[in-house]
Design brief:
Blueprint (H helix, E strand, L loop, with lengths): L2 E3 L5 H10 L1 H4 L12 E3 L5 H8 L33 E10 L7 E3 L2 E6 H14 L10 E4 L1 E9 L6 E7 L5 E4 L2 H10 L2 E6 L2 E6 L9 E10 L2 E12 L3 E6 L5 E3 L12 E6 L7 E4 L13 H8 E2 L6 H16 L1 E4 L2 E11 L7 E3 L2 E8 L12 E3 L1
Parallel strand pairs: 1-2, 3-21, 5-22
Antiparallel strand pairs: 3-4, 3-7, 5-23, 6-13, 7-8, 9-20, 10-11, 12-13, 14-15, 14-16, 16-17, 17-18, 19-20, 20-22
Length: 380
């Protein structure tokens, strides 16, 4: 009768098995009882192998360190739905969109204003063009401003627009004290804020008169008044009054108490003390305009002096004298005036603001070749 023997591996046997493999480990064996026939089950006890390897399928010897192949752990990016957005910001967008060559959308604005081109164009309109309610004779430098809220993708670092708004009030800081001084050089009339107190200053007749104005205006969006959302270059109304009983006797508005006291009375403006500085309304019309500055229709087409010269022509001549006295002569017979501003937003929700810098450079070069309307504003 034959006996079956189940071999139980010792720790030594297990290590030998894992080193050499089952075939080599059980190739030779001997027993002391030679009168019996034994059948040896060479399959090792699987539970014993588990104690060493943690696997029930490993029956071959592991490779030595010298011929092992090293591998690098691969980390896959999470699916898009699980990507964490880690950063947000606001991006400023100044825009001008009148379907013309000077249209743009920019976060920072660098603009050159060629005043010699602007003056020439205005004078040409006054001489050769009939009254037009739709013609805009002020220069619209900024049509509007809005903010894009962006979020950054954590994986590829790209930015994506997630929201936009224009419902905020814009404030501007002068970058330096020189910028503030230059702003006051170009504007004879301006408003100063001290806390809640607002003071309007008019220095039109304290120096070379200029009606030239760099201004910021209000855009209307539904029921919201968006202060400071546009910027334009135009001319201020000069001192208003009347000419009475003829075309030479100017009386200011404060003096005229009752128009019935005069046989003849006509709206008028005055630019100085010379006879040619008195301009009166040539016909009883309002000269309404869609221009951002309603006064420009009257200045271009409505008021003339005793020589038939338009008011805009007279204001330009005064502005040229002002420029040559107050602007910086950067080369012979060429004047420039830079103004640099930085946008301030009262509440950004703690987010960083990208952009918001504006650089104006006013240039007056009376010897330059006149190239036309599209060369008035140069946007960089």
């Amino acid at each position: 009768m034959a006996n079956n023997v189940n071999l139980k591996l010792t720790n030594y046997g297990l290590r030998r098995l894992m080193s050499n493999g089952a075939e080599q480990s059980f190739k030779y064996f001997s027993l002391s009882d030679m009168n019996e026939i034994y059948y040896v089950e060479v399959n090792p006890n699987l539970n014993d192998i588990m104690n060493i390897t943690g696997s029930k399928s490993l029956f071959t010897a592991r490779k030595s360190c010298t011929d092992a192949i090293s591998t690098t752990a691969q980390i896959s990016a999470p699916p898009e739905v699980n990507i964490t957005k880690t950063q947000q910001r606001w991006v400023v967008n100044y825009y001008k969109n009148n379907c013309g060559l000077q249209d743009y959308t920019k976060s920072n604005l660098d603009v050159t204003i060629n005043l010699h081109e602007y003056f020439e164009w205005l004078e040409d309109v006054a001489k050769t063009s009939g009254y037009s309610e739709s013609l805009e004779t002020s220069l619209k430098v900024i049509q509007g401003v809005y903010l894009n809220k962006q979020e950054q993708n954590f994986v590829n670092k790209t930015w994506e627009n997630i929201d936009t708004t224009s419902r905020f009030t814009t404030l501007y800081d002068f970058n330096t004290s020189v910028d503030r001084q230059n702003y006051l050089k170009i504007n004879s009339r301006y408003v100063e804020y001290k806390g809640e107190e607002k003071t309007q200053t008019d220095k039109s007749f304290e120096r070379f008169y200029t009606g030239l104005l760099l201004g910021f205006g209000v855009n209307i969006e539904g029921s919201y008044y968006l202060e400071g959302h546009n910027s334009y270059i135009t001319f201020n109304p000069p001192q208003f009054g009347y000419v009475i009983n003829g075309k030479t006797n100017f009386v200011n508005l404060e003096t005229v108490t009752n128009v019935d006291n005069y046989k003849e009375i006509t709206p008028a403006v005055i630019l100085g003390t010379n006879n040619d500085d008195l301009y009166y309304l040539k016909e009883p019309r309002n000269f309404k305009t869609l221009d951002i500055n309603g006064f420009m229709g009257q200045a271009v087409w409505g008021y003339i002096n005793s020589k038939g010269q338009s008011l805009i022509k007279g204001m330009i001549e005064k502005a040229k004298n002002h420029i040559e006295f107050y602007f910086n002569e950067t080369s012979f017979d060429k004047w420039e005036l830079p103004i640099n501003l930085s946008l301030k937003i009262p509440d950004t929700g703690g987010l960083k603001v990208i952009g918001g810098n504006i650089k104006y450079n006013f240039v007056y070069d009376p010897n330059a070749t006149i190239l036309g309307y599209n060369n008035i504003l140069i946007i960089n």
